[in-house]
Amino acid sequence: MFVSQSSCHFVQLQPLRQENHHQLLFLSSRHPIQAALISLHCFHCHSLQYLSETEKLTRIQRVGAMAVDDVGSPVRYAVVTGANKGIGLETVRQLATAGVTVILTARNENRGKEATSKLHQSGLSNVVFHQLDVLETESIKSLAKFIETEFGRLDILVNNAGASGVVVDEDGLRALNVDPANWLAGKAVNVVQDVIKTTYEAAKLCLDTNYYGVKNVTEALLPLVQRSTSGARIVNISSLRSELKRIPDDQRRKELGDTDSLTEEKINAILQQFLHDLKHDALEANGWQKMLPAYSISKASLNAYTRVLAKKYPDMCINCVHPGFVKTDINWNTGIMTVEEGAAGPVMLALLPQGGPTGSYFDTTKLAEF
C-alpha cells in the first residue's frame, strides 16, 4: 500500500505481487523518497527467497515501514562531495527535495556557490555550501569543523568526487563515436588507445581522489556520523569498472574479494603495486585492466574499503553503488543515462530505512555482485 500526503509520505512494505512492481515504480518515478523506498522494497522481496524462515521474519520485522514527516521527524544532515555538477549536484537536489539539509561541497568555491544559488532559486533553501578539496587535509578539517559547529552531527555522507586517471583528446574521442555498448563491455580499449592515455601523474591523482580522498574524508567525518540520531548512511560512488570479474589477475581478484582477510593495509599495498607497475610500464604484463586501469583499480579498492568499513561499523548502512553509464564530464559525456537516473541509486542508499543492507554493491538501484 502506498499513501502520499502533503505533510507525510508513508510506505507500508507489505508483500507485493511481481506484476505490481513496475506499476508502483512508475507511479513513484517523480518522487525520490517513494522511488527509493519502493526500490528497496523490491530488493527485499527478491532477496527474501534466499533466506531461512527465521531470517525472513527478522528481515521483515526490521524493515517494517518508514515514514518521512516534514514536520515531526528530526532534521537529517548530509554531505555530498564533488557536488557542483553532474550526479553529485542531482543527488543534492533529490536529497534536499526529500527534506534533508544538504551540505554541497566542491573544490572550486565559485562553482560550488553558483550551484548552491541555483538550488536556492528553485526553492531548495535547505542546501548550504562549503568548500572541500578531498586532496587537502586542511580543507577536510575545515569541513569537519564547520559541521561540528553548525549541526553537531552528520547523518548521510555521499562520497561522489572522482577523477578519471587518464589524459584525453576529447575532440579525437568524439570523432570516434564509440558505441556505448562497447564502452560498457570494455571492448573499446583498442579503439580509443590513441586518444586516451594513462600517465603516472593522472593515475596518481585518480587514486588519491577516488580512494585515498574518500578514505580521508570518511575518517575525518566518522566522529560526526557516529552521532547520527536517524541511522548513519555512507554511500560511495563506484563504477561498473570496479567489478571483480573484470580484474584479469586471479590472485588480486581473490585478495580484493576475500572479506575475511581484507584490510586497509592490503588495499593500500595493491594500489602501491599498481603505481610501481605503471611507472615500469608493466601493467598488462602483471594483470591490470587495460581499460581505464587507474580508474578501475581505484573503484575496486573503494568497494573493498566499503566492505571493510561496513564490517567495522555494523550499526551503519555503508554501501557502494554504480550509478549507471551517465552522461557526465568524467566520461567525456559519452554516457547514455541522465543525471536524474544516475542519482537514483545514491539517493536510495542515502535514505535507507533502519535494517537496510550494508556492505553491499548496487548496480543503480539493484543489488549486484562485487
Automatic annotation (TrEMBL):
The keyword NADP applies. The keyword Oxidoreductase applies. CDD domains: carb_red_PTCR-like_SDR_c. One of its GO terms (cellular component) is membrane. Pfam families: adh_short (PF00106). It comes from the Eukaryota. Keywords: NADP, Oxidoreductase. One of its GO terms (molecular function) is oxidoreductase activity, acting on the CH-OH group of donors, NAD or NADP as acceptor. PROSITE patterns: ADH_SHORT. Belongs to the short-chain dehydrogenases/reductases (SDR) family. This is (+)-neomenthol dehydrogenase isoform X2. It comes from Coffea arabica. The lineage of its organism: Eukaryota, Viridiplantae, Streptophyta, Embryophyta, Tracheophyta.
